Amino acid sequence: MDKMIIEGVRCFRSEQEVPLAPLTLLVGENSTGKSTFLAAIRTVYDLVHAEKEPNFNEEPFNLGAYSDIANYAGGRGGRAKCFRLGVEVANANSANGHLKKGVADLEARPRADASPGAKQNIKTPIRLLATFCQEASHPRIADMRLASPPYTIAGNYDAESSKVNYVLTAENRSATIKVNRNWGPSAPDIRFLAFLLRREVVRVESSGGLTKQDFDGLQDVLTRLFRTMRRRPYAMAPVRTKPERTYDPKTDTPRPEGRHIPMVLARMVSAEPENWATLRTALSRFGKACGLFDTVTVRRPLGKKESDPFQIQIRVAGPAFNLVDVGYGVSQVLPILVDSLLGDRGQMFLMQQPEVHLHPRAQAELGTFLAQLVKQDRKSFIVETHSDYLIDRVRLDVRDGVGLRPDDVVILYFQRGASGVKIHPIRLDAHGNLENPPRGYRQFFLQEERRFFGV
Amino acid sequence: MCVIIDADLAGRVFATPRQAEFVPLWHWVERKDGVIVYGGKLAGELKKVGNAWRYLRQLNAAGRAHHEPDTTVLPEEEHVAGLGICRSDDPHVIALARITRARVLCSADRNLHADFTNPQLINQPRGRVYQNAGHAHLLKHTPGCVGRRQ
Q: Is the predicted pLDDT of residue B70 greater than 60, yes or no?
């Protein structure tokens, strides 16, 4: 995902196109829409891949009903009749635009059976935009447009005929597919459309002016989009679960607040010793670098079986202590570290205040930790943060060339204004300096500093 | 768009309360598009000036101060010193201006004034020296200078 498009959602009134980078840092005052923006990112993924319509209230995000989500301008403006969310993938051949060159080249190579039309659009950007309107108090996809020149796909629901119409266009040729709401999705769904396009019979019945090459080209656009956005962003909660003295073996299904982490560690210790050794080393590296802990271990004081209760032990410069007996920051950062390390290569993570309860030294080290995962595992992180230490460390790592390139980072500054919140992208130069920040950026901090000096 | 504050004047520029001759300069940096440029040996000198370094850090975090690293300043400083035409002993300031295209200098050093306005050292556009509020007109955009463009 290279660009997010958002309009009419909560505090974002006018349409904004916001660039994303492998490490995107969201900064700004409280209630300026940073968490909403994270939720929007997951929603646009669900437009592409989910088997049902996007859920705006799946943990850790809780955006409410339509009236809570649609922008309210007040007065005559009232509440927005519809809102829009979208995404642009600049080069759909590389996941998040930063796959290794070899992999990108491999994916860019046309298939042997690809049509001329399919070859033509190999590197054209893909733009997907969905319009949501209110239906029974909840947002419903009313219209969806996908464009990758020379192809466009427009889907909408026609209430009169109770059908979802898809208009496929290639240059000046077009065809329409009508799907009865009773046997297909009740809103435009590009996964379902891709399924239809794979059916040659649908092509014949609805060919209109489109050629076989056009259908192949359209299908190729969809395939590239599915391939680029193949992993659902993993969202973490702003507050992690409380530590416990003893854990009973339970499910290790991922939870945003990290309740699964102790069980993940216990399972790895007993079932995946090699992976556990790798994870333990990576955790120790972070812990030692910031003085937070030396090692993390799993102890089973009441038995050795996997079904026996266990404890998480933390060693900090001496004997090991139970997780509940060391600083709260350890239990708060542990889910961030473990989930980030165990995530698949190329995975995108959505984080809210990963720095909570951490000492500035650990906050700074968290910046390096994320930067290294971007560099080594091609993971990407969209991080909502209030930590200057984390941001400064990222800038220093860019400056010193130890992890990230300037293009790998973008700071998104959420600034509240008279007409809603505006998102300002701020890039870094090769020396870690900010490029072109808006005037209001960090005005409060400068004022405080001047006050400190008595100016 | 960018200004260099020499260490010999930094005590007065960053003084509290603000001195009248530097009010336009601060207005330009804090309210408009001005950017303070520092780096190389000058950064080391500014670290020793009371409030200057702490406030510079805040300005840098806000994108209103640009740090140029030693890796780019030192080679240029050697080059400038090698030209053999500097009257001052501050070739690092001239080097910083050449790299960043900063064309306004705050300094009390007469020899450095001569170097900064010498077109053989700094040109297109030529360097200017800010000394008091009457020089506020010097605080304007320099094409190609690092820093903010808005």
A: yes
Query: Is the CB of B148 less than 8 angstroms away from the CB of A453?
Result: no
Do strands A348-352 and A3-7 pair parallel, antiparallel, or not at all (unpaired)?
A: unpaired
A439–B67: do the CB atoms touch at under 8 Å?
no
| More confidently predicted of A139 and A199 | A139
Nearest to A68 by CA among A6, A130, A145, A9: A9
CB burial of B119-148 (b: ≥16 within 10 Å; e: otherwise) equals: eebbeeeebbbbeeeebeebbeebeebbbb
Q: Do B54 and A449 lie within an 8 Å CB cutoff?
A: yes
Residue A60, preceding peptide bond in cis (omega within 30° of 0): yes
Q: Is residue A284 part of a domain?
A: yes
Domain that holds residue A284: 240-343
pLDDT score recorded for residue A133: 95
Report chain B residues touching chain A, CB-CB < 8 A.
16-18, 30-31, 51, 54-55, 58-64, 66-69, 72, 146-150
Which of the following CATH numbers is that of domain B2-135: 1.10.10, 3.40.50, 1.10.20, 1.10.1740? 3.40.50
List the single best residue of A429, A446, A447, A452 to mutate versus B (max B Cβ within 10 A): A446
Q: Is residue A262 part of a domain?
A: yes
- Inter-chain CB proximity B58 and A433 less than 8 Å: no
Q: Provide the token pair at B129.
A: 């020296």
The CA–CA distances, whole Å, from A347 to A67, A103, A286, A374, A377 equal 32, 16, 20, 10, 9
Q: Chain A residues with CB inside 8 Å of B150's CB?
A: 436, 438-439
**Residues A436, B30: C-beta atoms closer than 8 Å:** no
Where are chain B's structural domains? Answer: 2-135
Residue with tokens 């500054």: A413
Higher pLDDT, A197 or A412: A412
The pLDDT value recorded for residue A330 is 96
Instruction: Read off the pLDDT of each residue in A118-127 and give the average, rounded to a whole number.
Output: 68
Q: With contacts defined as CB-CB under 8 Å, which chain A residues touch B58?
A: 442, 445-446, 449
pLDDT band at A162 (very low <50, low <70, confident <90, very high): confident
CB contact under 8 Å between A435 and B63, yes or no, is yes
Q: How many domains does chain A have?
A: 1
Mean local confidence (pLDDT), A22-49: 96
- Least confident range from A17-26, A103-112, A141-150: namely A103-112
Q: How far apart are the first and last CA of chain A?
A: 45
Of B60, B61, B148, the CB nearest to A436: B148
Local confidence band at A95 (pLDDT 50, 70, 90 cut-offs): very low
Residue A203 has pLDDT above 70, yes or no: no
What are the CA-CA distances from residue B86 to residues A161, B106, B107, B128 (Å)?
A: 83, 18, 16, 16
Distance, CA of A77 to CA of B55 (rounded, Å): 43
In this predicted complex, what is the ipTM?
A: 0.86
Q: Which residues in chain A have their CB less than 8 angstroms from residue B66's CB?
A: 431, 433
Cis peptide before A150 (omega within 30 of 0): yes
Q: How far is B62 from chain A (nearest CA, A)?
A: 5
pLDDT tops 70 at residue A109: no
Give me the residue from A392, A446, A454 closest to B62, CB to CB: A446
- Yes or no, beta carbons of B60 and A433 under 8 Å apart: yes
